[in-house]
Amino acid sequence: MNDNNSPSCCSKFRPCPVIINILVILVFSCHGAPAVFAGDRVVTVGVYENAPKIFTAESGKPSGIFVDIIENIAKTEGWDLRYVSGTWGQGLDRVQKGEIDLMPDVAYTSDRSRIYAFHKVPVLSSWYQVYAPEKNRIQTILDLNGKRILVLERSVQQEAFTRLSKGFGLNMTLISVPDYDTMFETVAKGDADAAITNRFYGMMHAKQFGLKDTAVIFEPSDLFFAAPKNGDDHILTVIDEYLDDLKQDHASIYYQSLKRWSSEDVQFKLPEWVKNAGIALVVFLLMSLAGGILLKRQVNARTRSLSHRNAQMTIMDRTLRAAATERYVPAILENLLQGALDLTGVESGVLCLSDPETKGMSLSAVRNVSGKMAAQLKNNAGRMNGCFSGCALDSGKPSILRDNNAADTPAAQPSSDEEGFGFHASFPLKVKDEIIAILCIFSHTGIRPDQQSMDLVEDICSTVAMAIQNARLFEQAKHHEEKLEQKVTEQTAELKVAMEQAMAADRLKSAFLATMSHELRTPLNSIIGFTGIMLQGLAGPLNEEQHKQLSMVQGSSRHLLALINDVLDISKIEAGQLNLSVSSFTLKDSIEKMVKLVSPPAEAKGIALRMKMDENVDTVTTDQRRLEQVILNLLNNAVKFTESGEVSILCRRDHDHYRISVSDTGIGIKPEEITGLFQPFHQIDTGLSRKHEGTGLGLSICRKLITMMNGTIDVQSNWGKGSTFTVRLPAA
Amino acid sequence: MSETLLIIEDNPQNLYMMRFLLEKSGFTIIDAENGRIGIDMALKHKPKAILLDIQLPEMDGYAVAERLKTYPELSDIPIIAVTSYAMMGDRERILAAGAIGYIEKPIDPETFVSEIQRYL
Domain ranges in chain B? Predict the structure, then answer.
């Protein structure tokens, strides 16, 4: 296959001194020639048929633009070139497997860059063009619809053309062919309608096959030597160096080769205008070549810049996210410092944090700072004025120093004498107008962060300042909460103690009252008992005066006993120790019994006692003894406070409750005294109390007892006319 | 022969008063100042009835009543509790402990003897 096209193309070229030179080199290299070129290395190069870029000449020798260039390089570098012929596809396979060092004429694509290594300066720029016999009338891409088109197998153009034709919605048959010569032969024979080749090959061979170029041009591309991936980059670097030089020198082998393999031949065959067009084309080619390189450099630079920017954004995101979620101030500071170093690329930094109370700065985070410097910083952190960070502290603005030798501020003093950093920047972290921390970053190496990085650091500083403030507030709030909780716990404990003390005191009071009551009552029992015995005459006869006085003793004793009993009742009720002894009994009987008890004093005062009970008054379920106590109390009061007229008791049943009313025609109660009537130790009018003996506890006890029985007691009174006390009790 | 009553009472004045009133009415009175002696005397004299104070030193009236009831030979002797108003609510308790009656202090000299006779 490698020879099938050679005779026709090579016949057009004349030998020239360059070729002789190359042949000489080739001869040496073929023989290994280690004696001549010390440190020779063998470089194997793939060859396929794609004249004039690369092909095998009639003599069997590899030729073409790529060969000229690589041989020129090999001559100077002392490489021993070995050629391996094959098809395009074989060549690609070999270079991929590392069987050969270089494959020429490979267009750069991103897919290929993953498989092969490329040098950077393109050897040639080319494009692809469709060639067809004139009779096929193919002028635009639309004319290709339904046609059979030949394309080089595994080539860039195959893929690109497929994409292109799809874009136009064309339906065509693409047939892969291993080399360009076969392609043109097939089309010439009429077995296919058109062929796609690179512009070099087409320009050179179309006429010979009776084909014509069409207006279908696509996929401009740069052509390189491809090398095995992960192979020896040295070869590629060397090629780039040479190409740079060769392209600058218009007399170089590069331009000679281009001239020899393309223009000269074409010029020979074509009319004058085509020659001019060819020159224009060459100029255009060179310009596009230069433009391509420039564009590529710009794209590379832009890509680098974008990727740098992207990395910075990632750092920003990480730093700000951490600042927003972290509640622990030292962690926020560590994170900020790391973020600032990552953003700027400098290696060292410190962070000083102000104390919220003393406002003094203290060293809080450190990266890559020598022990001596850290110690100095630690000692000086409290008084930073004078040092470089002090500038930021004083001005409240970022302060940047790019070369400490040119310092026009009193900068960099604490440590620069020996440390000597070339770059130093300080950023204040401010909340409102207060500086709460200072971030300093510095570098001993040649790193000079750009303004964009510095702006980003300034940005995160302002956000992190807020985060620190928030974290501090959070800590304060937490601290307050803990204090509050502690206080509550303490107070609860105190209250518990106080409550226990109060309860203990209350138990003591109850015990005291019970004991006192007993102790008072026991001698009182003797007084009352013996007085009674003597008044009965059981101990011997008494005269009238003795009888009168003993009666007074008896009256006073009984009053004292009643007082003691009432006090004990009140204290028992208030301590919740008085329990009702509930039973069912006949209400009528109880009332009658109590009326009987008050009839002697009523009679004595000449007061009428009236009792009226409805027929439906039946049994009641409550504490009999206590209810009787209440009724007796009300009746006694009525008799006591009535001088003339009557005392009446009325009992009736109203639906689900009994109503017991005790009315009198006595002195009545003033409206303003009614309110306090049921309070303990309340007696209406001190003047009256002398006249009407009483403990002042009776009504208070009555109300408490009736309330315990789920009943109510109230009073209606006209001052000077009388009163009515009404008790309502559940009938059930 | 007059009927014998046992009074278990630690207060000398109260004891004297009860003894005075009951002896006036023809009873023979024996007494004890605490429950332990009271039980011994009850076992020895088999009185017609026992007047028992609730608030006693060492062994209180409830315990004395319960102990008295454990002796079959004493089980028929009525026990009458004599106690103060302060112990209201304890009526049920002393009745449960074995007393058949309950007289509240201060005693009324006019009704005391007749109340006692009610239980005999």
Answer: 4-118
